[in-house]
């Protein structure tokens, strides 16, 4: 828990250093406990730097996927959104299905930079290289089965209207929800749902997975935490009952 608190606070400081004593006072532990936690984080490839006698800091341009980094980019309405960060996982959509089976409630955001068994459409695998952005948003919807495709369209539009869109190598949408960049597939979207009311056929629980490989040089300077927040906010605020805005955004990038 101490290590997570340190990462949280250093992320929020945006590169500004904080002393070991200040951290010790904040968490009511000894300076030695702070030092040990910092060393452990460094051993786990978290590049914490020592800034002279000013203390510890994270590089300001470091792209860490942390709960704090995502939460600071959410709008106030969603500050209580449960966010789960995984160092590595088989598939965020598979984990979403497991969470629902265990009775966990929606909404929730699951995020990782490394998938070992990413899933695509019709049972296909989805190649998920390290340091990408792989996320699944679980939320409730009242859309009928034949309208669920609108959620995938919204997710594709969310990516293409986010801060990762650029003029050097613009993102586009092919098929329904394949994301392409500079002639190569850059990502994909998989929307699944579970019917809670079988009689009416209403799919109340939806989980939409977005996989972005971020391999193109034009994508190397984006913030994955900010991108995850932007996509989540778009999906949670979209008006699925009046989808004109979604369709308009979607058609701008569909080829």
UniProtKB/TrEMBL annotation:
Ranges for domain BPL/LPL catalytic: 89-196
Gene Ontology CC terms, in alphabetical order: cytoplasm
Transmembrane segments: none
Ligase as UniProt keyword: yes
Keyword terms, alphabetized: Ligase
Entry's Gene Ontology molecular function annotations: biotin--[biotin carboxyl-carrier protein] ligase activity; transferase activity
Domain of life according to the entry: Bacteria
GO BP term, example: protein lipoylation
InterPro entries the record matches: aa-tRNA-synth_II/BPL/LPL, BPL_LPL_catalytic, HTH_11, WH-like_DNA-bd_sf, WH_DNA-bd_sf
Keyword Ligase in record: yes
Residue span, Helix-turn-helix type domain: 13-56
Official protein name in the record: Biotin-(Acetyl-CoA carboxylase) ligase
């Amino acid at each position: 828990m101490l290590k997570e608190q340190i990462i949280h606070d250093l992320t929020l400081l945006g590169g500004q250093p904080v002393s070991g004593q200040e951290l010790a006072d904040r968490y009511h532990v000894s300076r030695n406990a702070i030092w040990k936690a910092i060393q452990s984080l460094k051993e786990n490839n978290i590049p914490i730097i020592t800034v002279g006698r000013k203390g510890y800091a994270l590089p300001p341009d470091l792209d860490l996927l942390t709960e704090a980094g995502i939460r600071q980019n959410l709008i106030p309405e969603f500050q209580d959104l449960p966010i789960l960060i995984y160092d590595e996982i088989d598939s965020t959509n598979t984990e979403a299905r497991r969470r629902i089976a265990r009775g966990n409630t929606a909404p929730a955001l699951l995020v990782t930079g490394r998938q070992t068994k990413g899933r695509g459409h019709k049972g296909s695998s989805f190649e998920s290289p390290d340091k990408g952005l792989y996320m699944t948003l679980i939320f409730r919807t009242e859309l009928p089965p034949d309208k669920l495709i609108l959620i995938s369209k919204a997710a594709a539009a969310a990516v293409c209207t986010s801060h990762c869109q650029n003029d050097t190598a613009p993102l586009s949408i092919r098929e329904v929800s394949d994301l392409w960049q500079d002639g190569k597939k850059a990502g994909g979207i998989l929307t699944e749902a579970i019917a809670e009311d079988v009689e009416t056929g209403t799919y109340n629980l939806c989980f939409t997975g977005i996989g972005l490989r971020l391999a193109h040089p034009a994508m190397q300077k984006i913030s994955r935490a900010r991108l995850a927040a932007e996509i989540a906010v778009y999906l949670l605020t979209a008006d699925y009952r009046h989808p004109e805005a979604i369709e308009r955004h979607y058609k701008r990038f569909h080829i």
